[in-house]
Amino acid sequence: MLSRALTRLESRLGVQLLRRTTRRLSLTDAGKLYLEQTRLAFSQIEEAERNICGQEGELSGRVRMSVPTTYGHHRLPPLLSEFARQYPAVRVELSITNRNVDLVAEGYDLAIRLGQLPDSGLVGRKLEDARLCLVASPQYLARAGIPTTLEMLGEHVCLPFIMPSSGKVGSWLFCLDGKNIEWLPQANVEVSDDVLGIVSLAESGLGICQTYDFIVRDKIQRGQLVEILAQLSGRSRPFSIIYPPHRQLSAASRALIKFILDNTQA
Q: How far is residue 28's CA from residue 214's CA, in Å, rounded to a whole number?
């Protein structure tokens, strides 16, 4: 039934909206544009109905959001908890993944991304520059010794992460004597897909990892991990929130975006 309805719609519009193969369906450029515009139209209808019914006081609706594992586990939970308390009628559908989703093609309203943002026609707002640090467990350092220079670090067991965008080991970022350095860790154990895996391995005593301070600060304070080579710190990576232009967003999406920005930006 859906297939016939789509075929009739394509015939009426005179364009192909879907690419069809025996294994999958995907949107054409025309299909992405049509989806984007119809989603906007429905959100405007919903907002108009809410205003007419006098329900402006209780915001409702659904928001689909994609975030990386680092933010999904360590930054977002307290934000969503407070947002849910303020807007109990808004349903948030959260995807925690390190894959960069296609907001338009996959039907997401917003996403949080790591790194520099490409020119995509989406709105991008920086949330924070997350400080990087090197950590290891007390057990590992007692066994292998504490490196005090970058040269000594090369003699230790390092736990690198395979970047999903390139399939290559991600460089560790340092600042030495005011100069930015990219250092490539070498190891027998490499982690892919879930960057939080390197923290778990480091905590178990397997080696040294570089991660974000906001992930390990509590573990350092509790003595589960130890920060090392602090003289090489000073580097960071940006986290940003991306979303379509405001006119294409529902009131619920706009409220969540504003809430996140208001509670994360310095």
A: 40
Question: What is the C-alpha to C-alpha distance for residues 198 and 204, in angstroms, rounded to an integer?
Answer: 10
Given a contact cutoff of 8 angstroms between Cβ atoms, the answer to whether 25 and 229 are in contact is: no
pLDDT for 216-229, tens place per residue? 999 999 999 999 99
Residue at which a domain ends, from 55, 81, 97:
55
**How much of the chain exceeds pLDDT 70, in percent?**
92
Full residue range of the structural domain in which residue 190 is found: 129-237
- Mean predicted confidence (pLDDT) in 33-50: 71
**128-237-230-72 Cα dihedral, nearest 10 degrees:** 70
Q: Is residue 213, in this structure, part of any structural domain at all?
A: yes
| Overall domain count for the chain | 2
Q: For 166-188, what is each residue's pLDDT tens digit? A: 888 999 999 998 899 999 998 88
- Reported in sequence order, the residue ranges of 15-89 that DSSP labels E, i.e. its strands, are 18-20, 25-27, 61-67
What is the dihedral angle through the alpha carbons of 14, 12, 109, 195, rounded to the nearest 10 degrees? -50
Residue 41: what are its φ and ψ, rounded to 5°?
Answer: -60, -45
pTM for the structure as a whole = 0.74
Report the SS3 class of residue 175. strand
